[in-house]
From TrEMBL:
Molecular function, one GO term: tRNA (guanine(37)-N1)-methyltransferase activity
Originating species: Microlunatus panaciterrae
Source taxon at top rank: Bacteria
Class of enzymatic activity (EC top level): transferase
Protein name, UniProt field: tRNA (guanine-N(1)-)-methyltransferase
Keywords: Cytoplasm, Methyltransferase, S-adenosyl-L-methionine, Transferase, tRNA processing
Biased composition (Pro residues): 77-88
Chain residues that bind S-adenosyl-L-methionine: G150, I174, G175, D176, Y177, V178, L179
Subunit structure, interactors included: Homodimer.
Protein function: Specifically methylates guanosine-37 in various tRNAs.
Primary localization: cytoplasm
Entry EC no(s): 2.1.1.228
Stretch list, region Disordered: 71-112
Any one of the GO BP annotations: methylation
Length: 283
């Protein structure tokens, strides 16, 4: 995968050279290119922001540097009337897509589907689509992602409008709060999708039972333990020493359901929610 990240603080992205993303870059699975947006400015002060039309506090990122950056990073984006190829199958569909009956790529517009395989622009914004494990799984299969990190009051709205005509665009939020800039959001989503790129994690089975993964019904993960068996008076549950794989799997499933019910009932699969509600009303 080629991954371009554009920011006015490129040093903010330095942690991507560490840990798993770093290994993915070293091994060639990810070709990371971090760019300083100011490279596409032409004035002495390398200006990237200006006052908002209509008044109000704060500054807005100017469209020209973003337009030139995207022209250079995505020079040969196909036009929207290109043929529609088969939708790719995402590695890690998550619970939200299943609940909505979506296979992740199928909920895209016709124009979006026409651009499958084309570069995909991810614009970090608190007003974007919420980032999920399902979306991470989808991004892990892309060939070329460009991440735009906003600052100030955000990017002039025409940049996204213009980009939509020539590439797939997702405006993405990592949560219902406001950061100072998109760099931290870019780090978060990159870490989430890079670990799902086939080959990045040595044992892909370790992804299957994680919290939010489709293979685990979108449940939160069961509690995990390691040595020693007794620590500060707390014991590892006996079942985990039993050697009965079926029993252990059943116990883990129960723990996962219970944890999800207690912490995030909104994540429970519909059939489990019905059983739990039924049990509560009959008791
Ligand atoms: N005025 C904007 C608003 O109210 O929607 C907030 C701008 S914020 C101060 C500056 C930049 O931080 C945004 O352009 C975006 O790139 C990034 N950002 C802030 N919160 C974010 C979030 N929850 N998810 C993704 N990006 C975020």
């Amino acid at each position: 995968m080629r991954l371009d990240i554009v920011s006015i603080f490129p040093d903010y992205l330095a942690p991507l050279s560490l840990s798993l993303p770093g290994k993915a870059i070293e091994s060639g699975l990810v070709d990371l290119r971090v760019h300083d947006l100011r490279r596409w400015t032409h004035d002495r002060h390398r200006t990237v922001d200006d006052t908002p039309y209509g008044g109000g506090a704060g500054m807005v990122m100017k469209p020209e540097p973003w337009g030139e950056a995207l022209d250079e990073l995505v020079p040969d984006a196909p036009v929207p009337d290109a043929p529609v190829p088969d939708a790719p199958v995402p590695a890690q569909l998550g619970r939200d897509d299943e609940l909505q009956g979506n296979q992740a790529p199928d909920d895209r517009s016709q124009d979006d589907r026409a651009l499958v395989g084309a570069p995909r622009l991810l614009v970090m914004t608190p007003s974007g689509r919420p980032f999920t494990q399902a979306l991470a799984g989808e991004l892990a299969l892309e060939r070329h992602l460009v991440i735009a990190c906003g600052r100030y009051e955000g990017i002039d709205a025409r940049v996204v409008e213009h980009a939509r005509a020539r590439m797939r665009v997702d405006e993405i939020s990592i949560g219902d709060y406001v950061l100072n800039g998109g760099e931290a959001a870019a780090l978060v989503i990159t870490e989430a999708f890079v670990r799902l790129i086939p080959g990045v994690i040595g044992n892909p089975e370790s992804l299957a039972e994680e919290s939010h993964s489709a293979g685990h019904d979108g449940l939160l993960e069961y509690p995990v333990y390691t040595k020693p068996p007794s620590w500060r008076g707390l014991q590892v549950p006996d079942i985990l020493f039993s050697g009965h794989h079926g029993e252990i799997a059943r116990w883990r499933r129960e723990q996962a359901v219970e944890k999800t019910r207690a912490r995030r009932p909104d994540l429970l699969p519909a059939e489990l929610r019905e059983i739990i509600v039924g049990e509560a009303t009959s008791s």
